[in-house]
Amino acid sequence: MNADYRWYVVRSKPGQTKRAVQELQNQGFEVFCPSITVDHIRAGKKVTCVEPLFPGYLFIELSELTSNWRPIRSTRGVAQILTFGDKPAVVPDDVVENLRTQVQARSELRPQQPVRIEDGPLSHLNAVFLEYDGEKRAFLLLEMLGRWQKLSLPLGTFGPV
Length: 161
Known about the structure:
Layout: E1 5-12, H1 17-26, E2 30-32, E3 35-42, E4 45-52, E5 57-63, H2 70-73, E6 78-81, E7 83-84, E8 87-88, E9 90-91, H3 93-108, E10 114-117, E11 126-132, E12 137-144, E13 147-154, E14 158-160
Antiparallel strand pairs: 1-5, 1-6, 1-9, 2-5, 3-4, 7-8, 10-11, 10-14, 11-12, 12-13
């Protein structure tokens, strides 16, 4: 990324986030729309879907100096660029990078997958991933004192072995 490029938030029209992402990418813009895999029960059956983490919103990387902002507003699926007052709202680079890391870690983990705890008092211990515990935590199984213990740890404190 060039030094003058920053991340901004684009609000999409209702139900058109994927279309906005595709259209902006077709125009050559760098776009990030974090998504997660979610299990739903529909008609009594488990269905796995990929959904946006922030429905109706996506991130776009632009330069105030060299990017052509004009076509963004008229892009199919785009409602507006979010602003504070009359200036586009800037999202810090580390926030977007952290989102990328969290979404990637979350999408890689499957039930019964071995993981290694990398942070905290249990660091360097191996465990087994069970399931997600909300948006920011997960349940793991850890063998301690000859028994399996179920514990909940924050995402980002462990990773696949």
